[in-house]
Amino acid sequence: MNSHYSLVVTLNSILQVVNPTGDDWAIRIQVINDLRSVVQTVDVLRGATVEPFGSFVSNLFTKWGDLDISIELPNGSYVPTAGKKFKQTLLLDVLKALKGFGGFHGIKYISHARVPILKCDSNMGNISCDISINNLSGQMKSKLLFWINDIDARFRDMVLIVKEWAKAHGINNSKTGTLNSYSLSLLIVFHFQTCEPAILPPLSEIYPGNMAADLTGVRATAEKNIEDICGVNINRIKSDKSRTINRSSLADLFISFLAKFCDISVRASTQGISPHNGQWEDIDTNMIWQPKTYALFIEDPFEQPVNCARSVGQRNLHKIAQAFQSSHQKLTSTDQIHPLAVLVRPEVLSIMSRSQHVGSVIHGMNQLRIHPQVGTNQVGVLRAPAGPQMLMYNGTQYQNRSQTRRGSHAPTYAQQRYTYQNSPNKRVNQRPLQGSQSESQSQDDLTSNNDVHKRNLINGQSSQNLQVQRWRVKSEK
Q1: Domain 22-134: CATH superfamily, name plus number
Q2: 122: which strand partners?
Q3: Which of 73, 156, 337, 417 could form a disulfide with 80 if both were Cys (CB 3.0 to 4.6 A apart)?
Q4: pLDDT in tens, 228-280
Q5: Distance between CA 284 and CA 291 in Å, rounded?
Q6: pLDDT score at 292
Q7: What is the per-residue pLDDT for 311?
Q8: 166: which residues sit within 8 A by CB, 6+ positions away?
Q9: Hey, what CATH topology would domain 139-314 get?
Q10: How many whole angstroms separate alpha carbon 451 and alpha carbon 455?
Q11: Nearest to residue 185, comparing CAs of 155, 147, 213?
């Protein structure tokens, strides 16, 4: 069987397994509500809000993804501020409340981190949670990544694939000195900026300033200013008919992604990765990156000059480079090894073999070798999925709504609105990017959106007032 076709089939099979289902969404919403209940029991946090961020808000989480939670302290209408010592004290109060609540286990207090956090796992679904105080910049970064997917839906698919690949190679864990998921997402952004033709622009063309520094003053005003700027620029980028469209398949983009960073350990000695400018930059000539104190520099495009890969040491940088090199060699070699041996963990392969949607992926590929650690399961022909369930908010409660013709690709318009209501999409041209996967899905999105609009009118509620619930779980007054 053609190796390229084998990779195409395999990537789609992996996406069907790692994509979160409606139940995965519902469990996380319940965990957020449980944490809200916990915070309400802490006297000093009366009036605080519990707000998710990270991959859950950016819609870049897998079915095993964790939850990042920010407890935003009340500060009138202004952006809240608090010193590190005060945050540490508040997190200790939350720790005591969590132990008394009974719905969480594995509670750990990490005080020495750059941002103090409280870690715990929920009893429901065993969801890992990282709780911090006043992480508004983290929330805005999550929104921006969510909006980037509106330019090209292949971004989300690549993130999910790369996350699983990185876990399979042991390079997606900042606690052990490798890459965190945010850094991986930025590597994909950078790859999409530097491929030919480019899929994404330099992020300075979406938001030219330092977003984290601009989150001051009245919170609603600061957030709206950022959203307005991003909305206008994303609309301009999507409607630019002079742009050359990159029609590479997901398989081609993944192979070129591996090839691009095969020499990352060598190149990182003199250059850093700047998604803000969309290019490699010499560290010696970039004054804000001086002095060079890190093995790898991936600049946070929304909080320059913060290095998102600061946990990576020299030894682990070589491990990361080796993962890129070996994976690229195996997936492009004539001595064909099945892609699953390179792309997934053994436990994920086990899930894939039992999946009613994926079935077996190696039927007709008996000549391809499987890595000994993942066994020799016989795989079948890929079947079209029935489609996951989505939770829709109708103004009073969440309801299930079946997803049709979407497979494992980008979420429908309705699911995107569910993911994050306060998106600049209402100010962005909804015309799908020509040549992208979203183009063939626009009619489904329109139908789903119209269904919601009709249901709203039947309930006597205007569509403008009935926005999907914002990802800010507010405490009851």
Answers
A1: Beta Polymerase, domain 2 (3.30.460.10)
A2: 104
A3: 73
A4: 999 999 999 999 999 999 999 999 999 999 999 999 999 999 999 999 999 99
A5: 8
A6: 74
A7: 92
A8: 172, 178, 179, 184, 323
A9: Poly(a)-polymerase, middle domain (1.10.1410)
A10: 6
A11: 155
